[in-house]
Amino acid sequence: MxxxxxxxxxxxxxxxxxxMGGAQWAGKSxxxxxxxxxxxxxxxxYDYHDARGHNDRRIASGKPLPSSPDDMWVHPTPSDLAxxxxxxxxxxxxxxLDDLRALVSGRPILAEGWGLRPELxxxxxxxxxxxxxxxxxxxxxxxxxxxxxxxxxxxxxxSDPARAQRNRLERNRLVAEDAVxxxxxxxxxxxxxxGTRDAEAVADDxxxxxxxxxxxxx
Length: 218
Description:
alpha/beta; five-stranded parallel β-sheet; 10 helices
């Protein structure tokens, strides 16, 4: 890996953080909550902050949005949607770092979410073991699409809901594949969730991966 980038880190939070990225609907948030309760660490949920404070910052920054829901979900190709999503992650990651800088903890903080990309995290960490990428297998992804309300919710107010949903799901698959490619290129572990084991068992794997960092900080 490249040398750790000197990034403003007033309380040493970023230096000691653990990171869990990957794909939607793989159970990352559930695993993070389990590990927080087991090990007394703090779990940072990317999606919660991204949908609230980060979205407010995006609006305040004046970044333009598509002019209509159709321009957002129906007219672009899935590849275009994926490229736009990936292009937006770096700015949103800077907002994550701002959130984390404000936290002080005697134990690591586990940040989880699909916007925590391997290539963005890599310059901040001293070992690829500080990150893990968690993704569903194709079969488990299809299962989640069938059973999770948030996975099946169609984008609102579009002229072609079926196409919008297909575009959204294919975009998510492409973004997930990009995360896996980046993780493997950087020597980071990828955990595939196939649905045969519950969240506690997946949390066991993640805890084992992070074991060197879960003891109290000296």
